[in-house]
Amino acid sequence: MPARIVILGGGVGGTLAANLLTKELGRDAKVTIVDPTGMHVYQPGYLYVALGQANGQWLSRDERTLLRRDVDLVVDAAERVDTDAGIVHLRAGGSLPYDHLVVATGSRVVPEQVPGLVEGSYHFYTLEGAIRLREALRQFRGGRIHIGIAGIPYKCPPAPIEFTFMVEEYLRKRGIRDRSEITLLSPLNRAFTIESASKLVTPILEQRGVKIETFFNVESVDPSSGTVTSLEGQKLESDLLVLVPPHRGSAVVEASGLGDAGGWVPTDRMTLQREGFENVFAIGDATNLPISKSGSTAHFEAPVVVSRIASLIKGTAPKANYGGRVMCFLETGNRKSTVLRFDYENPPTPPKPSTFWHIGKWMFNRIYWVTLPQGRIPEMPGDKRRAG
Amino acid sequence: MSAVAKTLDVKGLNCPLPIVKTAQAIKELAAGDLLEILATDPGAVPDFNAWTKSTGNELVEQSEEAGVYRFVVKKKG
Ligand SMILES: Cc1cc2nc3c(=O)[nH]c(=O)nc-3n(C[C@H](O)[C@H](O)[C@H](O)COP(=O)(O)OP(=O)(O)OC[C@H]3O[C@@H](n4cnc5c(N)ncnc54)[C@H](O)[C@@H]3O)c2cc1C
């Protein structure tokens, strides 16, 4: 009988893992992927939606069209996993028994956890959020914009800085830059957590006239006065507040007792196994790993999980380990971009922002839809040296 | 030296979480209380020095033993 592999979540990690597993195991496995929407969303596109450069349609595809034919897609939500029995219970009432489970349920935003955030601020972390922000930007005629983070961890750590550069350019193009003040709120004493990236972007932020408010950890928002207060006790008045909401793991992780206090799955940093389980794995945003929650992380983790499950099924010695590899583009506006590539051992040494990497990001936006169904991982120039 | 009012264990967490958790924890304390923080991220050393300077809380002790950094911060009065 083929081994039954169930994957929860049809995002970046789940889709790639499903395609790679069927490719690797053929008739030795039956791969089933569960996702409540049946649609696959390219989330980096939310940034473009917020700035009026793309519509929502460009970002989503029917998940079925991205999966190899031999993968089963169940359009339903996993409600609870019974790890003792090896069964996934679905919301509509059905259940799926498994021999191996991959948790790839990503993260969700929980703006309601910060007082005033829902009514008093905007964000670009969901499609609805991005559309709401786009409308607010269209109405904007000048004033004070504050951009910050209202909870950690959050996905795609460079996104708030990218948004800052992109909104600065947007206001310039609309001819209202001189009537606007842009401030980046940082939880630390620098623009970005990663030192090398911070050193690179700080002079560019200065050049563009963006102010940085340091050690500003958002505590609450007062929607009536448009003020944001920090844990450090500072209060700022704003005309347009853009704050990344806090994130949590998926509800199914918590309902199944598979998560920590934040709903993240405690995961072995090398084997990607759920701690204490041989046959339960986690990838992508769902893990508790102290590494960027990004699509590239899920990309690089998927082959490790696939190889490990294949070893378990074939009874061979497991070899593949995840080395913490991440790759994130960082748009700096004016058609320039840099790229952050790092892993557990090596911090990033980002190149000077250039048009080359800007085009690289655009190419990635396109080839994403081609590489995902094929279960291929796009390699970028200069990646080979630290492959594996 | 007065006793530590609260210990915050942020071992294994990477920046900026140690600072964020400290900012949250210190809100719960009274002026003059001591908060002890245990961290493993080497980046915490410059971050705590800068954070205390910027917020006016006082960094009264810092040490390192076997890869664990210990900070004691006195909440500003
Ligand atoms: C504005 C923005 C910009 C970004 N930019 C970049 C970038 O430039 N580069 C980059 O690498 N990353 C970027 N990211 C991050 C990237 O999109 C995510 O990190 C990535 O999608 C994570 O992949 P994942 O497979 O873990 O989760 P996801 O892709 O989020 O997929 C999770 C899936 O699980 C499903 N699910 C949830 N609960 C259940 C359940 N109970 N049962 C079944 N299924 C469930 C969801 O429907 C979803 O389809 C960005 C994100 C945002 C928001």
Question: What can you tell me about this protein's structure?
Answer:
- The complex is a heterodimer of chains A (388) and B (77).
- Chain A is of the alpha/beta class and 388 residues long.
- Chain A folds into two domains: 3-106 and 250-327, FAD/NAD(P)-binding domain, CATH 3.50.50; 111-246, FAD/NAD(P)-binding domain, CATH 3.50.50.60.
- Helix content of chain A is 28%, strand content 25%.
- In chain A, the strands form seven sheets. A five-stranded parallel β-sheet of chain A has the order 5-2-1-9-19, covered by helices on one side.
- In chain A, helix 1 packs parallel to helix 8.
- The longest helix of chain A is centred in the last third of the chain and has 20 residues, at 295-314.
- Chain B has a single domain (4-74), classed as 2-Layer Sandwich (Translation Initiation Factor IF3), CATH 3.30.110.40.
- Chain B has helices at residues 17-27, 44-55; strands spanning 4-10, 34-39, 58-65, 68-74.
- In chain B, a hairpin with a 2-residue loop joins strand 3 and strand 4 (68-74).
- The longest helix of chain B has 12 residues, at 44-55.
- Chain B is globular and about 30 Å long.
- Chain B starts with a strand and ends with a strand.
- The model of chain B has no long low-confidence stretch (mean pLDDT 93).
- Chain A binds chain B through residues 152-153, 187-189, 193, 195, 214-215, 217, 219, 230-233, 290, and chain B through 12-17, 19-20, 23-24, 27, 43, 47, 50-51, 54-55.
- Flavin-adenine dinucleotide (FAD) is lined by residues 8-14, 34-37, 43-44, 46-47, 77-78, 104-106, 124-125, 155-156, 159, 250, 252, 284-286, 293-296, 298, 328-329 of chain A.
Q: Estimate the global geometry of chain B from the Cα principal axes.
A: globular
CATH homologous superfamily (4th level) name of chain B: TusA-like domain
Beta fraction of chain B: 35-45%
Domain unit count of chain B:
1
Q: How many separate domains of chain A? A: 2
What are the segments of chain A in which pLDDT stays under 50 over at least 5 consecutive residues?
384-388
Helix content of chain B: 25-40%
Distance linking N and C termini of chain B: 16 Å
Number of E-state strands of chain B: 4
- What is the CATH topology of the largest domain in chain A? FAD/NAD(P)-binding domain
Low-pLDDT segments, ≥5 res of chain B: none
Strand fraction band of chain A?
Answer: 15-25%
Please, how many helices of chain B? 2
Largest sheet of chain A: 5 strands, parallel
CATH superfamily of the largest domain in chain A: FAD/NAD(P)-binding domain
Query: Quick one: biggest sheet of chain B?
Result: 4 strands, mixed
Overall mean confidence score, pLDDT of chain B:
93
Q: What is the tally of beta strands of chain A? A: 21
Mean pLDDT of chain A: 94
CATH C-level of chain B: Alpha Beta
